Amino acid sequence: MSGFDMAGFLAGLSDTVRPGTQRPLVVHASELEPLPANEVHNPSELAIAGTLPTATFEIFRQRIPAAESSDMQRHHHETVHVVIAGSGHSEIEDETVTWAAGDFIYTPPWTWHRHYNDSAEQPVDFLTIENSRLVESLGLTRRQSAGLATMAEARARFKENE
């Protein structure tokens, strides 16, 4: 979408969010704003429905290419991934869970997690919903990425920040 400025958009958030030309009720798939690859830290493609008039949560379309994964990360906000297409598994702290199209994956706050596409041929598509705007409005935003590290490597690297 040309002319969209994420910083300006976030600065315009207020207690009351009213739809308008800059904050429509519908964002079409072709209008999703891709996040720059250097901000994603993994092979996933992320695009935000940034102009929706949401004040407490954000919605992304996430695609993990065949045989790839997201990064090992943790953050203060909660996240739900709705699996639109594909199948795979996730490491969420000390649990490994499997999922497929139609499933919902919950990631609690401040838990190390990583999502894997188990297909060698097909991408995985998620609808990702997170309450990051609410957490940010409370001044509690924090995110750490260990890149394509294992759980043990992430824990060792960020042990001093526990």
Description:
With 162 residues, the chain is of the alpha+beta class. It has one domain (6-161): Jelly Rolls (Sandwich), CATH 2.60.120. Helices cover 14% and strands 33% of the residues. It is built from four helices and eleven strands. The strands form three sheets. The protein has a six-stranded antiparallel beta sheet, with no helix packed on it. It has a three-stranded antiparallel beta sheet with strand order 7-6-9, with no helix packed on it. A two-stranded antiparallel sheet has the order 4-11. Strand 6 (87-92) and strand 7 (95-100) form a beta hairpin. It is globular, with a radius of gyration of 16 Å.
The portion of residues assigned to helices is 10-25%
| Secondary structure: number of strands | 11
User: If strands are numbered along the chain, what order do they take across the biggest sheet?
Assistant: 1-2-3-10-5-8
Structural class call reads: alpha+beta
Element order, helices and strands? Answer: HEHEEEEEEEEEHEH
> Which CATH-level-2 architecture?
Sandwich
In the CATH hierarchy, what is the superfamily? Jelly Rolls
By CATH reckoning, the class would read Mainly Beta
Residue fraction in strands: 25-35%
Which stretches are poorly predicted, pLDDT < 50 over at least 5 residues? none
Radius of gyration: 16 Å
How far apart are the first and last residues' alpha carbons, in Å? 39 Å
Mean pLDDT across residues? 87
Major pleated sheet: 6 strands, antiparallel
Q: Specify the overall morphology.
A: globular
Q: Number of helix segments?
A: 4
**Which fold name is given in CATH as the topology?**
Jelly Rolls
When the domains are counted, the total is: 1
